[in-house]
Design a protein that fits this description.
mainly alpha; 3 helices; about 90 residues; flat
Amino acid sequence: MGFLALYVSRWIFGTGDLVVLTSDGLIIHPESDIEWRYIYGFLTAYLSLLTVSTLSICLSAFAENSIGPIVTTMAIIILFAVCVTLKYRLN
């Protein structure tokens, strides 16, 4: 997916600066920064997905039914997402 997102899109659409719309405004990243940002972003996403899958496999090793580890894993993810959101809202 990372290869397709970066290199095939460059082949189809060409190269240039990356324009990112945020809540603060418009950010334009130069073309020289795009490759390492994509690689870092996909590596971060891979590590996040690996953490979630490892957690769910660990919980399923201790459960007898199949729905318990799924619900528990999703509850843990939602709990941490709420905690992070509250942390940034209170600062």
